[in-house]
Amino acid sequence: MRRMKYKISLLVFLLLVVFSLSFAQAHNKSRELPLFQKVITIDPGHGGRDPGTRYGKILEKDLNLEISKALEKELTKQGAIVFMTRDQDEDLSSKYDVRKKRSDLYRRIKFIEKNKSDLYLSIHLNWYRDYYYGGVEVLYNNINKDNKRLSEILTSEFSKNKIKTRKNITTDLYLYRNTRVPGVLIECGFLSNKNDRYLLQTKEYQKKISKIITRGVINYLKP
User: How many CA atoms lie within 13 A of 188 on its CB side?
Assistant: First the structure.
């Protein structure tokens, strides 16, 4: 009986040693990832009662969320700690709020700040009355000096990957002029443009955009 207990104890000890070594190796490997422990908040625009722009039954809020989920996966693969302001079809305002839209945006700002984010990425879609307009557009506010550099890096990354890009411009919208954490608004395409609209609905293109944004974030955050 004693011999059996000894063998069991020895087996448990060896398993613990193996587990500890495996854990240490996995942790060391994670530390080598380019975004290890970087905190990034993704803000899928609109949601719930606020559909954003639309084309027929195609709603901006839904595509924003799909792109954001794909982006969350890509950033996590690279070691980032990722938070989402929403992960379902909802807005962040309370039923008691009189000014629903302002409350929704205010709560997004507080969510980004609470997470002590290294940066945030606000995901939206564009619309213009001229259907010819298309491509990705990255907007920033000068409330943080790093915002312009982040926008330029992301735009460059899209351009290098042969994604039609528009000129970087500033925005004075409420969320961006009140968020001191570095971050940008990424208009991933125009729902009013036939080609953009088709691509934005495909998983392949959503994943492609997410990979490009992730590479841009890596370039922005590297020492």
Answer: 32
pTM reported for the whole predicted model: 0.86
Report d(CA 203, CA 40) in Å as an integer: 22
| Of the candidates 37, 22, 39, 46, the residue with the CA atom closest to the CA atom of residue 185 | 46
- CA 120-76-52 angle, 5° bins: 45
User: If DSSP codes are grouped into helix, strand and coil, which group holds residue 134?
Assistant: coil
Q: Give me 105's structure tokens.
A: 């945006």
Q: Look at phi and psi of residue 86 and say left if phi exceeds 0, alpha if psi is from -120 to 50, else beta.
A: beta
**β-pairing, 137-140 with 183-190?**
antiparallel
Task: Strands of 108-198 (E only): list them.
Answer: 119-126, 137-140, 169-170, 183-190
Considering only CA atoms, which of 106, 109, 112, 110 is closest in space to residue 93?
Answer: 106
Give, to the nearest 10 degrees, the angle between helix 147-160 and helix 203-221: 130
* pLDDT tens per residue across span 76-100: 999 999 999 999 999 999 888 889 9
Model confidence over 120-178: pLDDT tens digits? 999 999 999 999 999 999 999 999 999 999 999 999 999 999 999 999 999 999 999 99
Average per-residue pLDDT for the chain: 91
